[in-house]
Amino acid sequence: MRSEQTGAPVREGVIPLSEPSLGGNEWKYVKECLDTGWVSSSGPFVDRFERDLTGRVGVRHAVATTSGTAALHVALLVAGVQPDDEVLIPALTFIAPANAVRYVGAWPVFVDVERDYWQMDPLKVRDFLLRECRWHEGALYNRTNGRRVRAIVPVHLLGHPCDLVPLVDLARRFELRLIEDATQSLGARYRDQAVGRVGDLACFSFNGNKLVTTGGGGMIATNDEALAAQARYLTTQAKLDGVEYVHGDIGYNYRLSNVQAAIGCAQLERLDDFVAEKRRIASTYGDALGALPGVSTMAEAPWAWSTYWLSTIRVDGARARVDRRKLMERFEAVGVQTRPLWQPLHRSPAHRGAQAYRCEAADEIQAEALSLPSSVGLREADQRRVIAVLVDAVGGRL
Ligand SMILES: *Cc1c(COP(=O)(O)O)cnc(C)c1O
For ligand 1, atom 5, which residue shows the shortest CA distance? Predict the structure, then answer.
């Protein structure tokens, strides 16, 4: 049993939000690392993990990193984001992409999500670029503060892909880099293609609570050989010469270890099963909860094949008998882990001072959203228990 944040154990008898499933070749591959002495930040499993991921995503290059956040940091650097530039980020997401923008000295601009699927709203992105920005000598600038706008980082939220075609069009038209934050959505498909192959770069995470975990880890994926080479260089201390230790730039120690990659290889082998299981969990919730007063489950867009990484509902406190907060307390009292979505970033004390563009839906969704237990290993009886608590709390009937 693990906690939702870190994959650390939770109390016995508690139904966890999402715990990893480690019953495949993980032991065998880790033992191989120990037996052969390949435990550090290079080795056959690192190479294989990168290769396996390129195969899964359908990209040419992948560079393994110590975390998804590190992947985002380096992706922004190699995309050419400079200090004082601006990068468009959805308001409703885990904070990591916004933090990564600050690591490079640039600024996030928070753009709203759309109401149907909770993903970055391409219409508002377009409006921001058209109305709030202007061209000057071949570059795009924010009219309000004069900063150069350099990139868009859409986040495929909760296992569901963003609508990429309009975002790609906007990136082309406004000459911006597109970096997909696919950290929550490995295995998801956009119009029959894996997420992570459309942007200039894409980032994945293998944190303890993600669908595929290495304990902690990340990956940068790209079709561009030069970007991949630069990412590899920066994640390995920008080493020019490994014998005499000549370093060409300020680099980072961001390489994934062989032990972690070994776990990742075993996990990736089971990705299809994981996704099938997550989709089954989501559809069971959908069937049981969809008709309850004031409760709605996540929809899947016509362009989407979602992994349903975390099954998340909305509870309209005016129509259901409880609001989201009370419902969470009810679950907690009976040993069921649930979790609200993240504080919308335009409200984050950590990012005060960043511009927000018409972030309304993000607030509405966040006020009502609650993620339910969604572990790959969630037992049917446990899911029935979760459903029964919810039905009782909102005043519906099974
Ligand atoms: C998990 C996550 C990350 C960062 O991944 P870590 O591996 O935890 O650093 C980045 N962006 C989003 C949207 C995430 O959910």
Answer: 68
Centre of ligand 1 from the C-alpha of residue 205, in Å: 6
Which pTM value belongs to this model? 0.96
Locate the ligand 1 atom nearest the alpha carbon of residue 184 and give its number: 15
pLDDT tens per residue, range 176-204: 999 999 999 999 999 999 999 999 999 99
| DSSP per-residue letters across 81-136 | --TT-EEEEESSS-SHHHHHHHHTT-EEEEEPBPTTT-SB-HHHHHHHHHHSEEEE
Contact at 8 Å (CB) between 91 and 129?
no
Show the tokens assigned to 362: 């993000």
Question: Over the stretch 64-86, which tens digit does the pLDDT of each residue have?
Answer: 999 999 999 999 999 999 999 99
Ligand 1 centroid distance, CA of 320 (Å): 32
pLDDT at residue number 41? 83
Coil/strand/helix, residue 149: strand
In the chain, what are the helix, strand and coil shares in percent, each to the nearest 5?
35, 20, 45
Ligand 1 probe mutation, 203, 207, 307, 310, most atoms within 8 A of CB: 207
